[in-house]
Design a protein that fits this description.
- It contains 13 helices and 15 strands.
- The chain is an alpha/beta fold.
- Strands 5-6-7-8-9-10-11 form a 7-stranded parallel β-sheet.
- The chain is globular and about 65 Å long.
- The chain starts with a strand and ends with a strand.
- The chain binds 2-succinylbenzoate (OSB) and magnesium ion.
- 2-succinylbenzoate binds next to loops.
- Magnesium ion (MG) binds next to loops.
Amino acid sequence: MFVQIHTVILRYLQMELKSPFTTSFGTMKTRPVLLVEVVDEDGVCGWGEGVAFSAPWYTEETIETTWHMLETFLIPLLFQAPVYHPDELRDRFSIVRRNYMAKAALEGAVWDAFAKRHGVSLSSALGGEKKEVEVGVSIGIQPITNILKRIEQALAEGYKRIKIKIKPGWDVDVVREIRHHFPHVPLMVDANSAYSLRDIDRLKALDDYELLMIEQPLAVDDIVDHAKLQANLNTPICLDESICSYEDAKRAIELKSCRVINIKIGRVGGLTEAKRIHDLCQQHHIPVWCGGMLEGGVGRAHSIALATLPHFSLPGDTAASANYWERDFIDPEVTVDNGRIFVRQQIGIGYTVNLTEVERRTVRSKIYKKSRG
Ligand code: OSB
Ligand code: MG
């Protein structure tokens, strides 16, 4: 059985975040979403989501560059030949360098269509086993009283772990204050590359607060400096932005640049590559968890499916839809029960895309058709 895609629809959605999200880089109030719909010869649909933001602060991609790469290169490559298994797309797309979020958006849609054709959930198509996944929340930079309130609320909802964003000058004091109110809560911090080795004393000061890990303290390409930092820290380093491929993960493990890896489907170019990194980390006993990109429902569903693989042993960032949106564009919305998401067993991503909710937010859309013959 194979999937021959003959139509791809790209949609640009503008989503309003319930509350602004601030990282070491800046604040986001809205979240553009690139929705990818693929349709095969028999009318089976698959859904994918591009996770690039409107500005290239997290990685070099933006929603506009992903649209361009899809339209000009990736969609034509997909139309070229049938897909017997979505794993083939990694090779087929490799003639386009990097542009991982663009590749992941289209590959994810094909994975969904593939699972639907085979009558299985995306989780089982990937080899996932878990029937529920544990999740935490990521709390942006904001006044400390708000952070304490958000933590209290998240704990009341049962979330398994709290992550806060830090930056130079907004770190040790904030963590100390949180520990004062919540001495034993599973807590971690994420710097989104805001530090350099010159800040080593400030980062070492965080060792006193029993943090689960420090996520991406140094720059994206500072794989050597991360190794030097890790050798001087008791707190495990978790890499996010630095790991864009299996090879990146291999280097980071060999150099001992981190003790934990955050896997995001978009950042690494798709589910196939995410699975390869998962398997590598499993062999090397490096714990992994599934990161988040403030996704809409489709991206959220893909992350949930990925997190059902056995080596995702730490709670991820995939919180409930209601943590981000007044109304997500899938049915049902993603809900969290005592810090757990129950994995839907329906075919494909397991959630239905609500076209009314999609169209309400669609700013622009375009249909691409495979040419005949
Ligand atoms: O670094 O993990 C990150 C959000 C946007 C971009 C990067 C990151 C994040 C988060 C929030 O931390 C994850 C989420 O709740 O989806
Ligand atoms: Mg991060």
